[in-house]
Fold each of these.
Amino acid sequence: MIPSLHTAGLYIHLPFCLQKCVYCDFCSYTGLEAHYTAYIKALLAEAETRAEAWSNRSFDTVYIGGGTPTVLPHDLLIELWQGLERRLPIVSREDREITIEANPGTVDTLFLASLHEAGIQRVSIGVQSLNDHELALLGRIHRADQARRAFQMARAAGFENMSLDLMFGLPGQQLEDWQRSLQQALTLAPEHLSLYCLTVEPETPLAAQIASKGMPAPDDDLAAEMYEWAQDLLCAAGYRHYEISNWARLTAEDERPDLMVPALACRHNLKYWRYESYLGLGVAAHSFDGRRRWANLEDVSEYIARCGRNQDTTAFCEELSPEQQLGEAMMLGLRLIAGVSRRDIEARFGVNLMQVYGAEIERLVQQGLLESDAHDRIRLTRRGRLLGNRVFAEFLR
Ligand code: SF4
């Protein structure tokens, strides 16, 4: 839980997609192909502008996300990656984790091989479902067989650390549909799995379809059943659950009893849950330096124009009080299955956790949502994982 003062994560936002999925409220745009080259140039200009403020850290994780990063031509992605390496203190190859998100339907083996050769070690594939009718319902651009092929192509390209994203709790989805999807995903033997329960975000086409009764609303109880079933299946299949929505395949390294998270956990995302620093570059990217957090503006043309003039692209910035920092560290840390350590909190924030949050913790323990071991750790119970938002709300004052 205690972050290193000298390392940080780097997040790169590439906000371009071929088609908008019906549930998506991320900052992503279609039809902006003409801006790709200018956007990468702008991103590198932002990296240069922000480099000085981050010069006392080194980046040991990089996550290139979106959007769909792999809609960009591979030479542009490589130009981006090499440009970042020249401008920012990214640690050497053996000590870092570099991930790129890829969507089936936008990659082939040569494309992936060139990324791997350029030094990107990990690929996270947005599969979402291995049932064609669900992919169509979600407005995804790919079919299930393309998702399987994308995975195999990434393996053939040399990626040894791969993650798959799947979604459950979809409108009309039956338990058996979900079971089939997840079981098929396991036949691919990914190193890592992220399983997300669909959230119907306001102002999305999906919300409108549900409101007009064109589609059934997701069934929360059934989604809980799907999640419970997935936890059992993945445990039996040799995966360790380390965050509410994330699992990593166990390796020989995981036999060490002192490891709080599995060796194949996503190191970049761990920085968010451990409340460590990260710099986000690109439109809508968020950053946190341990004291302040900020977010970039969302408009691509405006972002390109400002970077071209060496102007600030920050749209929002907030200085966090020590109380806010503690609350956020608790809320994020409790997402980890290993929970938070009272000793670490004390060392980092100089407070006794039980004196600040004793009443809340006790109430949540009585409700069966949190458990606390005799000497140090506090974590969500299995029931608490289903009702995480109720728990986290107690730590935000
Ligand atoms: S691919 Fe991802 S970012 Fe793009 S529209 Fe779909 S969900 Fe949104």
Amino acid sequence: MPDYYETAAQVNEYLVFHYANIEQTLRWEFGPHQAFGFHTRLAECIDSSQLSEKSRALDLGCAVGRTSFELSRYCSEVLGIDFSHSFIDTANNILNSGEIPLVLTREGQLGDAVTNTLPDGVHPERVSFLQGDAEALPGSIGRFDVITFANVLDRLPHPRVALDKLAEISNPGAQVVVCSPFTWWDEFTSPEERLGGFKRNGEDVTSHDSIVSALEDNFTLEATYDLPFLIREHERKYHFSIAQTSKWIRLEN
Ligand SMILES: C[S@@+](CC[C@H](N)C(=O)[O-])C[C@H]1O[C@@H](n2cnc3c(N)ncnc32)[C@H](O)[C@@H]1O
């Protein structure tokens, strides 16, 4: 579904997901408050003490850019790449203005327009955004010391192709974090291209196991995590997901 992430409604939903504070996101006393702040928690999977002064990060499938800005706290160069032109235009507007205009939808057309700003301590001057395809990355982007690849695999027509590229674009010792709730939809990934969620020869095939098979020749699996996240559709409807997360270290070969 190539246009799914191009609409104004998706742009706003992702601006709220990435940049709204917890009171703006979830005003109720009840609810999955631990799922707030996904992009900060994702960036914290990176061990900054292992990075040199000049470290390059790639946020693959960056959407409107929050993880890219979070990585700029300890990486000297951050590139965010996303397939959606609307998301990349929005991320570039944030980069240039430092302002994030978003609407906190209450019901239907009703909502509150607010303008947020980038969090303290990030370095926009280190960040750039590029429209591109995780399955066909340009060679000119070079290699990276940090890669985040969050919630994208189950939105790709050929997720294995994108996984295979990770070794080509990472430096020895690179920290690579891959995560997804593995919500496979026919509109994005045909059943035969999926990483998991089916039986083969009577055995369960999980997406995590397929990621391990795809990466284990070139990476060491350092850790696994379960990262919850919360996307607000409107004041009374949310999408609560738990991304199965694996952190990998690029081998020297
Ligand atoms: C579920 S969103 C996740 C966005 C972000 N990583 C996050 O966790 O907030 C999926 C993202 O993948 C992007 N995407 C889909 N197909 C892509 C492709 N072929 N290459 C790069 N990004 C893609 C979409 O535009 C969208 O921003």
